[in-house]
Specification:
- It contains 6 helices and 7 strands.
- It has 196 residues and is of the alpha/beta class.
- α1 packs across α5, α2 packs parallel to α3 and α5 (160-179) packs antiparallel against α6 (182-189).
Length: 196
């Protein structure tokens, strides 16, 4: 088991496990943490804490990269279990997830706030008893039909390059957060015109 460290970050990508959900709009969080792991030459394969996870080091900071296996609506169960076990402060938690309020290609960072109807975030707030945790939101665009069907489908051929760009930006944002701080990442990636 990994020993507890003071400078341990918990970077969680939200999504649903299973082949049928791979690379769908609702699995943007999974795709970002997988890409981050890949950029450091590793993959997320250990299975414990109701999650797949791995530990990496980036600029002398240890990071747990996590993909909860609880399905989106119960994401908070896995996250609380990991935070408690490793004694990680909520301030070191970063959650990545899909957001329909932004167009494909856009990412937005925020330090706290309500779930805005996102069930994964709602579960985290309910389990941690706080809205104060850092988030990276990856835009998927407004749903054009049934919301559940929409988020569980893959981006269109036209959207995919923009989604790929957003995933790469989210990976870069995580690196800025770990190397520098969240404020610097917000300044770099939250542009006022809504374009990054």
């Amino acid at each position: 088991m990994i020993k507890v460290m003071n400078n341990l970050y918990l970077v969680v990508g939200l999504g649903n496990p299973g082949k049928e959900y791979e690379h769908t709009r609702h699995n943007m969080g999974y795709d970002v943490v997988d890409k981050f792991a890949d950029s450091l030459g590793t993959s997320i394969e250990k299975n414990d804490f109701h999650s797949l996870y791995t530990k990496v080091k980036y600029f002398d900071n240890d990071i747990l990269l996590v993909k909860p296996l609880t399905y989106m609506n119960n994401s908070g169960i896995a996250i609380k279990e990991i935070l408690d076990y490793f004694k990680i402060p909520v301030d070191n938690l970063v959650v990545i997830y899909d957001d329909m309020d932004f167009e494909p290609g856009v990412i937005k960072l925020k330090e706290s706030g309500s779930s805005a109807g996102h069930n994964g975030i709602k579960s985290i707030i309910n389990n941690l008893k706080t809205e104060k945790f850092k988030r990276i939101r990856v835009g998927t665009g407004k749903f054009k039909y049934n919301i559940i069907d929409y988020v569980l489908t893959k981006p269109t051929k036209e959207e995919q390059p923009l989604i790929d760009e957003a995933i790469n930006k989210a990976v870069d944002a995580i690196k800025v957060i770990i190397k520098d701080n969240f404020q610097k990442a917000m300044n770099l990636y939250n542009q006022k015109d809504g374009k990054n």
